[in-house]
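Worked example 2:
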Amino acid sequence: MTPGPRPLLVDSLFVYMRLMAAGSAAQLALQPGGVLGVNSLDDALAQRANAAVARFVAEFLR
């Protein structure tokens, strides 16, 4: 398998499936326009991504 034009997507799907197979708590959120490190940017997409991470962590720690 080659990554094709979307290597970040392929990597993200691969890691997500490995985490699920291992029984880990995992969620995959695909954001159109997202780039590696999007959560460190200062824009609306980064804010949504960081909010999703915060919700996941809060739910996991309950």
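The chain has two domains: 1-30, 37-62. Residues 20 and 26 are 7 Å apart (CA to CA).
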